[in-house]
Design brief:
The structure is a homodimer.
Chain A: E1 3-11, H1 16-23, E2 35-38, E3 43-46, H2 49-64, E4 70-78, H3 101-113, E5 121-131, H4 136-148, E6 153-157, E7 160-166, H5 167-180, E8 187-196, H6 199-202
Helix pairs in contact in A: 1-2, 2-5, 3-4, 3-5
Pfam families (chains A, B): Ykof
InterPro entries (chains A, B): HMP/thiamine-bd, MTH1187/YkoF-like, Thiamin/HMP-bd_put_YkoF
Domain Thiamin/hydroxymethyl pyrimidine-binding YkoF putative (chains A, B): 4-83, 122-200
Chain lengths: 205, 205
């Protein structure tokens, strides 16, 4: 299989370059398991599906730690038939075992409950695309059932779902949605926005 | 049908709020045909599928006109079965007439060739998701054939396709990919990043 992400960091400051460069060391613990390539639009991460969201979490928390309004935007994918197989993307054991919907929701909720808090509050929204599936809305609705029980569910928006909370459980919720709600061989994509330190958020009632 | 976008503007400057507010008047010519709602993460545009990309183009060109490194990120969707029908989204005549692949490519190329230049050079990348289709990769490959002939094709990247050129033909190419490569009743999503004034782009050979 092939799994990875195209991700971008957007610090809303004149000093966006040092904020981005200063956060990159947060990826160091992952570098031996990932292929990482950067151009002027995004950074490609290719690696095991279970580590994509932890890597993005650590990068984003580091950048948001500057206090600047910062957004991470990412396109996350697994199982794309147009991409070559890559040994580097072999999922961790257990990933491919799909139980009943009830079991998967329970496993996902346990993982979110065990997520370490980071002390960084974030708002996120994402869209979930199960591709090549004739009844794709069934998988989307099953995933939404999990999200509503996750403890970080914000609200349903047009075209996406909003999450609010500490970056730890928010990114774990995203990881579970990505990992557990489609078969291992499925082609799945997830389109993600995560924001911290927004002045608009502070102004919300 | 229901069509629209969740879009966000990211000006990489301390003055990001005035850049965003200053660009919003570019949406004025579209307001009578759109429902527009903003929260701290994104702005929702709901309206006719053929006007989504022109509206985003005008907004982005206005924001990038400040000279600041600015990114527009958007999730664009049509035909989602989970959304209500909306009269406001009725497509313009001709939208639902799908000819052969060759005819569609020719129509799309004609539209891109007629696109007005804006004087603003942009780089874009996007992913195209035909949902609920058993042979979704066929539609993706057909769309890529058009993109390669569009005149603004940059390169294929993992998970997405890159476009480079003037904002006029680039946004028209995106619009054609969104409008012409799936039936009118299909559920289709497109995940978009557009960038201007990047110092990394200037440093490219």
């Amino acid at each position: 299989m092939f799994s990875g992400a195209q991700m971008s960091l957007y610090p809303m400051t004149d000093d966006f370059v040092p904020v981005i460069l200063g956060a990159l060391s947060a990826l160091d613990p992952y570098r031996d398991r990932f292929r990482i390539e950067t151009d002027d639009l995004s950074t490609l991460l290719v690696g095991p599906p279970g580590e994509l969201f932890p890597a993005m979490r650590d990068l984003f928390v580091a950048a948001a730690g500057t206090g600047r309004h910062t957004v991470l935007s990412a396109t996350v994918s697994r199982g794309c038939p147009g991409e070559p197989d890559a040994d580097i993307c072999t999922p961790a054991e257990g990933f491919t075992v799909l139980g009943s919907l009830e079991e998967r929701v329970a496993q996902s909720l346990a993982a979110v409950g065990a997520a370490r808090e980071t002390g960084r509050r974030v708002a996120a929204q994402f869209s979930y695309y199960p591709l090549g599936a004739g009844r794709h809305m069934d998988e989307i609705y099953a995933c939404i059932d999990f999200l509503k029980a996750s403890g970080v569910f914000g609200r349903s928006k047009n075209f996406c779902t909003r999450l609010d909370g500490d970056a730890g459980p928010v990114f774990e919720t995203l990881a579970q949605a990505f990992l557990r709600f489609a078969p291992a061989e499925a082609h799945l994509a997830l389109d993600l926005t995560v924001s911290a330190n927004s002045p608009s958020a502070a102004a919300r009632p």
